[in-house]
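A reminder before we start the practical. When you read a complex entry, don't treat the lines as separate problems. The point of joint prediction is that each chain is placed relative to the others, so the output describes one connected object in space. Small molecules and nucleic acid strands, if listed, are placed in the same frame. In the example below there are two entries. Take a minute to note the order of the lines before looking further.
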Amino acid sequence: MYIKISNLTKSFKMFKRSAGLKGAFKSFFNRQYTNFHALKNISIEINKGEIVGILGENGAGKTTLIKLMVGLLHPTNGEVIIDGYNPWKRKHDYLKNVAIVMGQKNQLWWDIPASESFLLNKHIYQIEDSKYNETLNELVDLLDVRDKLDVQVRRLSLGERMKMEIIASLLHRPSLVLLDEPTLGLDVISQSKIREFVRYYNSKYNATFIITSHYTKDIQEMCQRVLVLNNGSQIYDGLFNDLIKAINPERRLVFEFSEGTDLKYIDSLDGKFEFQIHDSILTAQLPESQLRELLSKLLEKFSPQSMSFEDLPVEETMRSFFQSPEDYL
Amino acid sequence: MFIFIRKYSAVLKINWIQALEYRANALVGVIAIISGLFIEYQIWSLIFKSQDLTHVNGFSFNELMVFIFLSIIVGQLKSSWHTSGEMIEGIRTGDINKFLIRPISYFWYHFMMFIGVNSLYYTVYSIILFILIALFPGAIFQAPINFIGFIFALIVSIFLSYSIYYIMICLAFWFGEVRSIVVAYNLIMLVLAGQYIPIRLFPDSIIQIMELTPFIYLVDFPVSIATGRIPIDMWLINFFYSVIWCLIIWCLGHFVYSRGIRKYEAYGS
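Here is the predicted structure of the whole assembly.
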């Protein structure tokens, strides 16, 4: 097992104070502390080469889990073992095989070109010249930023900066890559480029990816397996498609009748199935089995001009899931 | 060792590149150094002239000027307004994460940054040193051994000073904002380390107390070697004490860091 997380719990001590000057004075002399449980009893095992998405609303504990995996935080209870290492000990041999990209933080030097930061990483990770040049050329071409290498980082667009961050993080060819909101604030083209890149890197180097994202599309396109967190608790660990089916088993059928078709027969189906007809197009949103039954009945009597099955929008499905996850799992 | 040098010299190099990116900032820094020296010169000439003095505590005007100029230079080289501010901010905002996730020592990375940021001043001060030697012959580096001793004492001073800053910076793991502690320390050091008023002008009892602290090795020791105010047979014992202080402060810094990092909550994303 490449990653083994057992009964992991992380609590933070936080102080509370009421708003305003009075609250500030009161808190200065008498600070009230409370314990906030960011993660509760998480257990998960991940194989090498898997791409696992972590889903959850704000404050669910996604970033805390990532930080525990890279060793930025010390667990309150439980254990994280990655490739035989305890991340918290931050052994250089472990860190040489890990990369983390945090969408809201950057590791590049702001006032100088990204190429200088890459060179610094080359020395920090002790990358040989030939391997460095080969990896850099490969990453730069894949992410299409060759002409931006010598531009000061602060002059780059958000998308270009994120691509440079990813390059800086992958120069040493890590076997574990942790991406925390990698597409946050990026335009559609940059988002898709990054998703494409993750799939490529994973298949070429068999690297393990752990990805958190608010965009369900990121997870849908990059990860087969997901871990869902809710208020610090693990509520689902399994295939993304199974989760979607569990949340919303319905699919949509769009059936377009040929011109001049007599639609009288349709009335007989009206009580059995729920559907709508507009301009010779029948639309039905039903569980898969019912949808198939309806389709076979339609095909007995009609030959369609066109027809299609559609999955329901995933974003919408996930939104209703997070409103009350206990209703679905 | 070779890998260590290569790794951390790369940090030093990128700091130079960054420092050279801002030409106006560099120029203002150099002007500030020269202005400080000019003000000290004006104040002490006024004191000597108005009191009609030839010597103060065994210092002639020229000797005192050399001692003070050199003290200001050494004091600046060991100061860490920029690096310490950045490190504290990093702990407070979570920017430190980018160092913790890489196979690099937080202590040595920032030590190189500390050297790198001050590098511009090293160059300017080296030129001023040559001017001092030419203007006040015999008052500074009377023999080559004084120069060699000065360089060694300066290296110890810079390391010791950074290690003291490091302990204060690590307190940010508990308190978040500790820049006021660093500012207070910097102001106290202007006097206690002899950066603006030479310790040699203080009463003997105070000098004896100061000799029991590491602060004497920050400015007074290297400057006294350069100006020949410490007999050569006393160098060895003083070097020994200064290295012991370095070890104590370095170990203490690592202890505070290892405790502090457990408290760290990796704020922000």
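Discuss with your neighbour: Residues 249-311 of chain A form a domain with the Alpha-Beta Plaits fold (CATH 3.30.70.1150). What might explain this?
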